[in-house]
């Protein structure tokens, strides 16, 4: 029981029922759903929150770190992966939560500064848009960072699963990852946030998926699967299985006739890797 405004006891709602009661016109749908690596929470009949998360460990300037990288760079690329996932799906990010496994000091402040540098590129500058915590009880000798990004999107602008049979698959950027590569913020072979925003706003581009540690081929198949299609691989000079670390590239679907225009509008290299086809076409 809970206290009512009039001083009496109001009956409590069963767990999660209050959420269904709060959301207009949504009692027939599940409020929380998974879509690929995203968690989607419906907050209205036509809008939902989209949540993405990622972590970084052993990369930094601590004594036990395996890869030596400045803390600002750690923060920048730690935020990059979940932020790109939010942008790629069509959502607008509004909140960053960082959980750092190191003491609150100049080092953790530098990591947070790196995150804010990237967040500014998408207009996130308000202090209230950042929350987080540090480890101030136990001394640590290795860098560890977790990042969660929350965005909001209307159903109309949710681009996941929108690929049409016949659209081609392209990769923007090249797959790079530590320790094989030294990842630099200004690397022209890495897809920038601005380039991603250009792709997302292009009328001939449908679904976009940032590439992670499992490589380009895995993500291309994920794109096909969530649209009820199959992916037909073509010969390409790009590595299909190399890790793209902090999402240095993305796989996206595009109308073939619009591909040249896309290439002209972004800085990162664009490579064709295949075609999305109907499932019955593959069986034939």
TrEMBL record:
InterPro entries: PurM-like_N (IPR016188), PurM-like_N_sf (IPR036921). It comes from the Bacteria. It holds the Pfam family AIRS. Residues 37-153 form the PurM-like N-terminal domain. This is PurM-like N-terminal domain-containing protein. It comes from Sulfoacidibacillus thermotolerans (Acidibacillus sulfuroxidans).
């Amino acid at each position: 029981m809970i206290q009512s405004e009039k001083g009496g006891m109001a009956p409590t709602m069963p767990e999660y029922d209050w959420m269904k009661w709060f959301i207009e016109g949504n009692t027939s749908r599940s409020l929380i759903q998974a879509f690929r690596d995203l968690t989607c929470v419906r907050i209205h009949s036509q809008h939902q929150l989209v949540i993405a998360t990622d972590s970084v460990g052993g990369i930094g300037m601590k004594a036990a770190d395996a890869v030596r990288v400045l803390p600002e760079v750690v923060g920048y690329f730690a935020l990059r992966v979940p932020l790109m996932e939010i942008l790629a799906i069509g959502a607008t990010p509004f909140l960053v939560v960082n959980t750092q496994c190191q003491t609150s000091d100049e080092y953790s402040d530098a990591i947070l500064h790196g995150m804010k540098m990237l967040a500014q590129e998408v207009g996130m500058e308000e202090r209230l848009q950042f929350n987080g915590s540090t480890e101030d009880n136990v001394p640590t000798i290795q860098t560890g960072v977790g990042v969660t990004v929350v965005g909001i999107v209307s159903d109309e602008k949710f681009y996941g699963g929108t690929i049409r049979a016949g659209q081609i698959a392209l990769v923007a950027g090249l797959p790079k990852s530590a320790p094989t590569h030294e990842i630099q913020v200004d690397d022209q072979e890495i897809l920038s946030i601005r380039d991603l925003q250009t792709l997302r706003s292009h009328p001939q581009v449908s679904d976009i998926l940032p590439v992670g540690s499992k490589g380009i081929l895995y993500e291309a198949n994920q794109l096909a699967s969530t649209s009820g299609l199959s992916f037909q691989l073509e010969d390409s000079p790009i590595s299909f299985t190399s890790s793209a670390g902090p999402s240095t590239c993305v796989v996206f679907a595009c109308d073939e006739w619009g591909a040249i225009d896309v290439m002209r509008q972004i800085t990162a290299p664009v490579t064709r890797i295949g075609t999305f086809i109907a499932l019955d076409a593959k069986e034939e």
